[in-house]
Amino acid sequence: MTSFSQWIEDKNQDEWWIFIKRLSANDTGLTGGNGVGIYVPKAVVATALPSISSTCCQNPDCSLTAQITSHGLPEQTLRGIYYNNRHFEGPGSRNEHRLTRWNTDFRNSPAQDPENTGALAIFAFHVPHLGRDSEFLDIWICKGLEEEEFVESKIGEVIPGSSLFDRGDRLFAGFAAGSDKEPSHVVIPPLWEDRFPSGEEIIAYLPTVFRFGKTTPDELIIERRDNEYKLFRQIEELHILHRVQQGFGSVDEFMQVANSVSNRRKSRSGRSLEIHLEHLFRQFGLEQFSTQCRTEGNKRPDFIFPSCADYHDPAYPEQNLRMLAVKTTCKDRWRQVLNEANRVEQIHLFTLQEGVSPHQFAEMKDENVKLVVPKPLHTKYPDEVRGQLMMLNDFIVEAKDVR
């Protein structure tokens, strides 16, 4: 951890621009398809590799010296490329930026390792001169929960499918403005201008200001959580943006605000997904469940069905009990749920992670863990895994029927 914390400290400067994401199955090559290499949003390329942010020619590219410091690898040369076929006549409709050639200088790059699907990856571009391409890319791919929790304690939760991008001195202070999900611009209750609302209040307020076009639980969980995060960011900006713009009179004053932001983000990430599921369960007729039920060894699984009382009733049939664990990302976290409810034979685990490796999925199956994944995310999983995933709607139907 010391080397990682020092690496973060070294990047906490205005010459480093930091792009953070969770590696998807598409990034690591698990799902095949046209995409090769790491997908990079347009806004990142415009700052870090502006020479290829153009449609003046087809598929502009550049070379970039890079190093995966987290794994002690030597420097290598990557290719930054803008696949812009959509803007030209002829075949092809791609319009995306990628970093490629991870395995050219040497083999088995951690950036292309299927086992790193879901891992938190930090791409630090050294940009001493804005308007010019980055001179160096330093990369850290987190190797476990300890490293991921360390960085998320500074910047907040990194949701699968989203990313952060900002200058190092702003991002690692918790004040990153460069999330790929912009804040909403809706009317909020006047009371929230003086008091930051709870997660339950924010989620309950969503139908008041957003119109949800989706109709299934699998689609709604993604749509609602996306809008909830945008609303959270709007409220957060209301509370801290003017404070940051004013500046700080002392280091202690700065740290007090930064810690407040960090704690609020951690609190949200810890409960947001569970609250959304509670609302969806009730909306689709699944009324009987208990949250945070105390089980053996003082464990507290996220959901027990049909109730905590039934779980603790020795006469209640074990085959009718269900447990649902909730993890935004399941890589390195899925083992945490194995012993939370001894009476439940098969554990259901709900996640928003965009893909798992076949090897890790086989490990889950061996431990009798069933992945519950929103249907729109199924295409992000390898073919051999996709057919064994459970939709959220199917879980709701099953949990209603077993009673």
Automatic annotation (TrEMBL):
InterPro entries: DNA-bd_pseudobarrel_sf, EcoRII_C_sf, Rest_endonuc_II_EcoRII_N, Restrct_endonuc-II-like, Restrct_endonuc_II_EcoRII_C. It comes from Pseudomonas chlororaphis. One of its GO terms (biological process) is DNA restriction-modification system. Keywords: Endonuclease, Hydrolase, Nuclease. GO terms for molecular function: DNA binding; type II site-specific deoxyribonuclease activity. This is Restriction endonuclease. Residues 17-165 form the Restriction endonuclease type II EcoRII N-terminal domain. Gene3D superfamilies: 3.40.91.80, DNA-binding pseudobarrel domain. Residues 232-396 form the Restriction endonuclease type II EcoRII C-terminal domain. It comes from the Bacteria. The keyword Nuclease applies.
